[in-house]
Specification:
By secondary structure, the chain is mainly β. The chain contains one helix and eleven strands; from the N terminus they run αβββββββββββ. Strands 4-5-6-7 form a four-stranded antiparallel sheet, with no helix packed on it. It is globular, with a radius of gyration of 20 Å.
Length: 137
């Protein structure tokens, strides 16, 4: 009788995994790191190891990278004039201008998302869509 119950549980688990509702061992975040950044003298290259794509963020003459926040599938750079984000699936970098005198309060990147809190705004970057969202503080 015990073997029958165990067999039914294993069948239910396998069925759930096949439908995508099963065990978290197969979740997207377990796939590992696929986004890497390479610094060059005049650009930052985002490398998507999963798709084999390369995306250049060309820096202007006086632009400098101040901070970087990188997770498995998203990266956000803070430069003196802008915020730049890149995700594992959209094609390329997406930038948002910094406001005059805007200071970084905190920032983090996790999985496909990044959050940047400044003295003026709360910013989020979605690495799946490549879109920035903002709210004034």
């Amino acid at each position: 009788m015990r073997l029958s119950v165990l067999s039914r549980l294993l069948q239910a688990a396998l069925f759930g995994v096949l439908l995508g509702t099963g065990y978290p061992a197969f979740a997207e975040e377990d796939l590992g790191k696929s986004l890497f950044l390479v610094d060059e003298s005049d650009r930052v290259v985002a490398v998507n190891a999963e798709t084999g794509q390369f995306f250049d963020l060309v820096l202007s003459a006086k632009e400098r990278v101040r901070n970087r926040y990188v997770a498995n599938r998203v990266a956000v750079l803070v430069t003196n004039p802008r915020f730049a984000g890149v995700g594992a699936y959209p094609s390329g970098w997406s930038s948002l201008r910094r406001k005059a005198g805007e200071k970084i309060v905190s920032a983090e990147a996790v999985d496909y998302s990044a959050l940047v809190v400044t003295s003026d705004r709360i910013l989020t970057f979605n690495g799946k869509t490549g879109a920035w969202s903002e709210k004034r503080r």
